[in-house]
Amino acid sequence: MPTEFISLTFPNASTEVSPIPNAAIDPDYLVRYARSLDDYNFNYTLVPYDSSSYDPFTIGATIAAATKNLKIIIALRPNTLYPTVAAKALATLDQLSRGRVVVHFIAGGSDAEQAKEGDFLSKEARYARLEDYIRILRRAWLSADPFDWASEHYTFTQFSNRVRPANGSSIPVSVGGSSDAAYRVGGALADIFGLWGEPLKETREQIDRVYAEAERAGRPPTDRPRIWVTFRPIVAETDELAWAKAHRTLALLKAHRANGQGKAPPDAPAPQNVGSQRLLEIAERGEVHDRALWYPTVTATNARGASTALVGSPQTIADSILDYVDLGAELISIRGYDNLNDAIDYGRYVLPKVRQVLEDGGR
Ligand SMILES: Cc1cc2nc3c(=O)[nH]c(=O)nc-3n(C[C@H](O)[C@H](O)[C@H](O)COP(=O)(O)O)c2cc1C
């Protein structure tokens, strides 16, 4: 499989470095952003989920209508949609987009965030429910024959799904997280496993954990989850200019958080999800890791979401990405802080460099 690139969907011009308070969806911006990703040959865009934010399915349908090749990754928390409904919703979007849908499952990393939408299960139980959920969706996509289900979390009888995926049988399933339960469920069931950008050594360790769980579940090496790694590149013409930009970006992140406009409130408690805890622990060990992986953006945002930067010229960013490709990452998620302009810069100057090296047979 070739190396593929992922971005994140933004519904308006608000960014972390230039926030627009209470910005509504800007349909023109959404379409312009999505078309830019398509034009610059990004392969996917993730439509994220948050209890207080927009509905990913309608955003995804809008992107599908405005683009040709871009695949749409719908982030989905099982507590928000009954699995039979989700199976049909995803298959509907898959048909509308002619087979461009991926689903990214989020078991839920924060009890408080889950409680906002009525989910009071423990994290272990949330992962057990996710396991059930994936099995139900796969079964519902496979055939229209009616089937019964009876498990701890879901019981129904004679469900028949006549809304099938575009390929007739399946939609790629992604799982993200860094806890033991995430490795177990994702290793056993996912087509794609999503990670946040950690140093090479720690990323290698996480990949090994996912592969070990896949093997334990009886999957052969030819059927392991494809690995997705996420970064926030800060790119400029030279390394020196990029570092200056990185420090300007960091100052803005800190200022916006202090005045209540950051992604995390100034007094945010320590995060409960293991992925964020790992990022904060690594941040304590040093600011720069490996070639150009920068951690102060992690601390400044309380590791709320993907937050490790890669800083440098397009060549440095491309070389850093190739370090992860060499480790086995096949999907590289890159999004910046100045969202649209950064996506265009990556599309012009970074993606072609990485692809050229890979086309020439690697380093
Ligand atoms: C690539 C990637 C994308 C993610 N997207 C989302 C998202 O859109 N919404 C969300 O609430 N959590 C998202 N997460 C967070 C985790 O999936 C979530 O915190 C997980 O349920 C529990 O994390 P843990 O297993 O590391 O403790 C994402 C994680 C990764 C690695």
TrEMBL record:
InterPro entries: Luciferase-like_dom (IPR011251), Luciferase-like_sf (IPR036661), SsuD_RutA_monooxygenase (IPR050172). The keyword Oxidoreductase applies. Keywords: Flavoprotein, FMN, Monooxygenase, Oxidoreductase. SUPFAM superfamilies: Bacterial luciferase-like (SSF51679). One of its GO terms (molecular function) is monooxygenase activity. The keyword Flavoprotein applies. Residues 14-330 form the Luciferase-like domain. This is Luciferase-like domain-containing protein. Pfam families: Bac_luciferase. Gene3D superfamilies: Luciferase-like domain.
